[in-house]
Amino acid sequence: MEELIARVTQKTGLDAATSTKAIGMILAFLRKEGPTAEVNQLIAALPGAEDAIAQAGKGGGGGLMGMMGAMGGGVMALGGQLMGAGVSMGQMQPLGRELFAYGREKAGEDVMGPIVGSIPGLSQFV
User: Fold this and answer.
1) 112 occurs within a structural domain
2) What's the pLDDT tens digit per position in 38-69?
3) CA distances from 18 to 4, 10, 21, 27, 125 (A)
4) Is 126 among the domain residues?
5) What pTM, to 2 d.p., does this model score?
6) Which domain of life is it from (predicted)?
């Protein structure tokens, strides 16, 4: 996970704590919305992923972020959560691209392809 966090901080300019939280939020979203077998393979291929997911789950989600989550919103709700954690719109695409590139390196395209293909709107961020 340290290598991934370093790559995300370099590409986005986010600090390590925000990067870790954002990665955890994205992985938690994938776990909820993506194909179970592939998402579990991805998480298993990323040491520290479970800890990042647990960290991302801590803290409240009020305001716009909570409202979008309550409406169900998919990728839009994830974007609201990321903004609430301090990730700007301009940082979301590099964050997603780096996370998914790393996922491809560690878990393979046969795992990542079905994840991206199964979640509407996700492909524009990866």
Assistant:
1) yes
2) 999 999 999 999 999 999 987 644 444 444 44
3) 13, 13, 5, 14, 18
4) no
5) 0.89
6) Bacteria
